[in-house]
Amino acid sequence: MKKTEKIRILIADDHYIVRMGLIALVNTEPDMEVVAEAADGNQALELFAKHHPDLALLDLRMPGKSGIQTTLEIRNKFPSARILVLSAFDGDEDIYRALQAGAQGYVLKNSTGEKLVPALRAVAAGQNWIPKEVASQLASRKLLEELTSREVEVLNKLAKGLANKEIAEQLNITEYTVKDHLKSILAKLRVADRTEAVTTSIQRGIIH
């Protein structure tokens, strides 16, 4: 990159005030400029294809198409795309999914400009950016067993306050099978009861 060339950035966040704040922050940096702004994932995809920015800064949870889905689709169409995911959540499952989808970095929304700006520069330059607190979340995830898709379904029903019998009816399985899934969920999440299972899985981003 020539000295005179600025890092061209696309910013996607569904919260107007957050988006404006990010744009203002980026535009105060002499070596960066915002070339496009999107309020959701679909818009981010369209604008990425139109502007081919050096870097996309995507909010993790947006209406319609999530940051993870958007990352996946951008990287499928533009394999060399550089993507930094921004999130208010530090659940290990969210972080893991974003990186699996092809994001090269993950920054928490409570980060200050001093933390965000170097992350933007690093990812635009082809490096990966995983802050310490995020890296430790990922490390702890490796020690835990993954839930099956059926177990996640059961968890989602649990979060809605359904009883075993109702979960069985909705998923078309026996109550006995629901109890089996529950036992497995509690063991994998290392929790004592249903309430703790729901709380933990929301914190970790397994369910939203």
Overview of this protein structure:
The protein is of the alpha/beta class and 208 residues long. The chain is 53% helix and 13% strand. It contains ten helices and five strands; from the N terminus they run βαβαβαβαβαααααα. A five-stranded parallel β-sheet has the order 2-1-3-4-5, sandwiched between helices. α7 packs across α10 (194-203), α8 (164-171) packs across α9 and α9 packs across α10 (194-203).
Main traits of this protein?
single chain; 208 residues; alpha/beta; 10 helices; 5 strands; elongated
**Strand arrangement across the biggest beta sheet:** 2-1-3-4-5
Range of helix content: 40-55%
Q: Could you describe the largest sheet, including whether it forms a barrel?
A: 5 strands, parallel
- N- and C-termini, Cα separation: 40 Å
**Overall geometric form:** elongated
The helix-strand sequence is EHEHEHEHEHHHHHH
Q: Averaged pLDDT, please?
A: 90
Secondary structure tally: strands: 5
How would the blueprint of this fold be written?
Elements: E1 7-12, H1 16-27, E2 32-38, H2 41-51, E3 55-59, H3 67-77, E4 83-87, H4 92-101, E5 105-108, H5 113-124, H6 132-142, H7 149-159, H8 164-171, H9 175-189, H10 194-203
Parallel strand pairs: 1-2, 1-3, 3-4, 4-5
How would you summarize this macromolecular structure in one to three sentences?
53% of the residues lie in helices and 13% in strands.
